[in-house]
Amino acid sequence: MSIINISSDVYEEGRKIAQKTAEAMGYAYVGREILRGVAEKYHLSETKLVDAIDKAAPTLRMSLKLRKQLMAYIQEAVLGEMLKDNIVCQGLAAHLYVLGVSHVLKVRILIDPEERARNYAQTHNMSVKKAEKLLAREKKLRQQWSFSEFRFDETDPSKYDLMVSLSQIDPDEAVRIITETVCSRKFQPMNYSEKCLKDLELAARVRVLLMDKYPSSRVQANGGNLIIETLGLTREKRKREAAIKELAENIPGVNYVEVHFIHDFFRQAAESFR
Amino acid sequence: MTDQLEVLLLDDEPIVGKRLKPALAKIGCNVEVFENPRAALDRISEKEFDIVVTDIRMDEIDGIQVLEHVTQKSPRTKVIMITGYAMMSLAREAMGKGAFDFIAKPFQPDDLRKVIASAAKALGSSIDFTAAGIDNA
Prior knowledge:
The structure holds 2 protein chains of 2 kinds. In chain A, 53% of the residues lie in helices and 16% in strands. Chain A has helices spanning 11-25, 34-42, 46-54, 64-82, 94-97, 113-123, 128-150, 171-182, 191-211, 237-249, 265-272; strands at 3-8, 28-30, 87-90, 104-110, 162-165, 218-222, 225-232, 256-263. In chain A, helix 10 (237-249) links the parallel strand 7 and strand 8. The radius of gyration of chain A is 20 Å and the shape is globular. Chain B is globular and about 35 Å long. In chain B, helix 1 crosses helix 5 (109-122) and helix 2 (37-46) runs parallel beside helix 3 (63-73). Chain B has one domain (5-125): Rossmann fold (3-Layer(aba) Sandwich), CATH 3.40.50. Chain B has helices at residues 14-25, 37-46, 63-73, 88-96, 109-122; strands at residues 5-10, 29-34, 51-55, 78-83, 101-104. At the A-B interface, helix 9 of A face helix 4, strand 5 and helix 5 of B.
């Protein structure tokens, strides 16, 4: 009756472990297959959604703003799936945004960096040294991104309940450890943890709704009550607050909306120089 | 078990007991309210309750100590923790030590009634909560 979230530096390795764990527990596996539905719902390419999860740095095809938008769509879908309970989630970057929910067991699968570099060099036809350099750079960029976007470093071990190194523990043993751990009472759902998850899901739905017009908005939910922080110029304050309230109040599950307006000094400075 | 659930409610804020006692009585609970944890522990030593609802942060003795005392004294008693300082680590600690459920304050009386209903079900109680509008299926 819990949720297992598995993340890894190498998607395929994480997927194998997650699928085996789901099978062993009799849980549903929630992986990147759900991105097809997200892509259809928002008329996007599925590849772009995958890139938003995987790519380490902004590219010409994907700005930080677009990535933020795509991540918001993914979060909405993943958190919606998590409300169903009894799932193993993998490959959807949920370790970055499902925080503070005690019945979600967060597992990180570690791959030996040397082995990873060797495999990468082979598949991309390059020297191991070059592959090591590229992977180290990618890791650094991802750390920077996770820190700027989600305010924590995804490689920080304290953010996980369980870290399993596949260079020391074989996959079947890893599955056994995960399934045994999740059976602990500590990871059973309770009133508080279910409420935390519902709050995250509601905040994600609201964020998606505000994304087009007010992408800088930050949303927090607490039992149907919302606190929305939005960035703008003082002259826009009243109009924007009213518009955000109107949008958010119509979302199912929302009882009360409070909008906190934050003056955007950078935009004001930019406008005053025009 | 009788047709009434024997419930001990412990919270050092008097308003909590005052508000929750009638709400629980409505669904067939016989509630004893305590504001002093020591007095509550003495009562738990004397009587086996079906359900103990306890605040966590209190002076002198905290809710986790109450939980440990109850699980030692009466393993069948279901302990429901309530707190205004809910955190994932505290919730996991309470559940790991055998709490039946964990509720963050503020909450509606109905939230607690639902948890009481599922605790009653786990105890094998035949009390029908559907009359009070609570689904304990």
